[in-house]
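Example 9 (inverse folding). The structure is encoded as follows.
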């Protein structure tokens, strides 16, 4: 699994498949043969992507945080417990779960290992500092890291960070079990990258998990945190205070967008849980009082028949929650909108990305302007309450006219919310490989960085120009929405005003008009520096 996100659990109300029974027997055999271990699972966050919503309530009290739950460690915890291991979870968004508190807990409880889970390049500096702090107070503790970024950069992480002992590459359910069973023999663990003296050892790769129905459902009760529903990447754009969680029903994506590393991580494969297994988890969530679910699948709209089965089950069981998901506009499952709406789907997010076919083709989207218009039109026609559009600007060969056409296109679309991010490049994506080949980035020097393409690529408008165009485009788009769709704009603002401070609403509206400071300064090869404006 992506250590940062995933889900699974055996279904109480449905008989397991033959494959699942076999897997359970194998797990039981492992449990009896392997030593019982103690492990800490900690999800490490970049502070820019969460927001505490209440004053700190005191030690061991529940807190409210605008953020997605740490679905990866929530998934891994019950998998390891089923094998007899002792597990304690941490989420660094909690004031009592920061470096000092985790270090103190390690000294007191002396776990056999600490697994640090994180998703992206922006959290890596935080992970390094945390690992250093933990090793300083408990030099004996074994530290393993996992997640998409770690999987893409295992060799370099071990080479460059002496406080991290090993990296788990790929999905974690089987890997962590093997790791705990072989703490003194790391060479026996497929998918592990580790340090043997001064040498970095990369064990043979671990295959993708085929049966995603075999694991227990995530542990959503152990962490004293209430995760609050907010717009993706736009914290603190609070949508509701309904009891909220995330769920993942499939893994991977077979498409080849040049800016995305998921196809590399998932070997270009899309795997899914059965409708019966998904409905079993949804039953548990419904009974526990969850009233808002967000499906974190990279592409939920892949299989029409499966979607129909899941939605039919939601309707037949009269689940009370509403839910949302992400998908591609060119999916045949777009035609499942009517039953999705009937099953309480009230939010869909589409990766629109650009408003010209030229830029879509350069990004490797494999979709057309007409497909975008059709999918969003179908969603609104059949009653999807909120359609979100993800856009990127500052792409290679994109002109100022192209950028303004993208904003004009967004204004014409029937989307309710939107986000325009400047295109970034990071290791593991096809665009990164292209930049390495062109000499724009140095794979050995820059691997732990994320760059705005406008800051480093001579084929992209300069960063200052892109930011200026972004401000102009936002101003036009917001003015258009206020004048041409005043009722929808007012209703959206009213939704936010119910749960947000006026100061936060103002910051959200004005955020596109602030100059953004570059977090990591590019360190370009000398031969290329003169070519970049």
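The amino acid assigned to each position is listed next.
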């Amino acid at each position: 699994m992506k250590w940062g996100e995933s889900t699974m659990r055996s279904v109480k109300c449905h008989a397991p498949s033959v494959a699942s029974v076999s897997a359970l027997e194998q797990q039981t055999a492992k449990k009896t043969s392997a030593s019982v271990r103690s492990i800490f699972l900690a999800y490490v966050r970049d502070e820019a992507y969460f927001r505490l919503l209440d004053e700190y309530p005191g030690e061991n009290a529940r807190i409210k945080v605008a953020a997605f739950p740490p679905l990866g460690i929530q998934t891994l915890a019950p998998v390891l417990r089923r094998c007899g291991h002792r597990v304690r979870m941490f989420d660094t968004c909690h004031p009592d779960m920061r470096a000092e508190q985790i270090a103190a807990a390690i000294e007191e409880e002396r776990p056999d290992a600490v697994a640090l889970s994180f998703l992206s390049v922006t959290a890596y500096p935080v992970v390094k500092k945390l690992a250093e702090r933990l090793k300083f107070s408990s030099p004996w503790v074994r530290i393993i890291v996992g997640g998409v970024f770690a999987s893409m950069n295992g060799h370099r992480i071990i080479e460059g960070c002496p406080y991290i002992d090993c990296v788990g590459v790929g999905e974690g359910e089987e890997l962590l079990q093997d790791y705990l069973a072989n703490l003194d023999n790391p060479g026996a663990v497929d998918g592990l990258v580790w340090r043997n003296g001064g040498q970095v050892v990369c064990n043979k790769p671990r295959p993708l998990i085929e049966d995603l129905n075999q694991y227990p459902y995530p542990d959503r009760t152990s962490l004293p945190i209430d995760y609050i529903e907010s717009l993706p990447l736009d914290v603190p754009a609070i949508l509701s205070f309904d009891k909220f969680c995330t769920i993942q029903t499939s893994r991977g994506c077979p498409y080849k967008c040049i800016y995305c590393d998921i196809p590399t991580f998932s070997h270009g494969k899309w795997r899914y849980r059965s409708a019966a297994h998904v409905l079993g988890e949804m039953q548990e969530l419904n009974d526990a009082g969850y009233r808002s679910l967000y499906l974190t699948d990279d592409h939920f709209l892949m299989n029409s028949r499966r979607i129909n089965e899941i939605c039919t089950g939601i309707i037949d069981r009269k689940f009370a929650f509403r839910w949302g998901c992400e998908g591609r506009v060119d999916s045949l499952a777009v035609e499942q909108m009517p039953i999705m709406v009937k099953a309480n789907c009230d939010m869909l997010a589409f990766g629109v990305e650009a408003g010209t076919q030229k830029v879509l083709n350069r990004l490797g989207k494999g979709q057309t302007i007409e497909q975008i218009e059709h999918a969003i039109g179908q969603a609104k026609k059949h009653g999807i309450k909120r359609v979100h559009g993800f856009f990127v600007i500052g792409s290679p060969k994109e002109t100022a006219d192209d950028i303004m056409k993208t904003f004009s296109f967004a204004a014409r679309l029937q989307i309710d919310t939107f986000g325009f991010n400047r295109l970034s490049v990071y290791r593991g994506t096809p665009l990164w490989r292209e930049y390495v080949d062109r000499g724009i980035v140095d794979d050995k020097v820059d691997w732990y960085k994320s760059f705005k393409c406008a800051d480093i690529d001579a084929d992209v408008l300069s960063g200052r120009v892109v930011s200026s165009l972004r401000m102009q485009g936002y101003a036009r788009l917001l003015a258009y929405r206020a004048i041409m769709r005043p009722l929808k704009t007012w209703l959206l603002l009213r939704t936010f005003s119910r749960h947000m401070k006026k100061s936060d609403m103002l910051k959200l509206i004005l955020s596109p008009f602030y100059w953004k400071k570059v977090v990591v300064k590019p360190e370009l090869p000398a031969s290329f520096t003169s070519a970049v404006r």
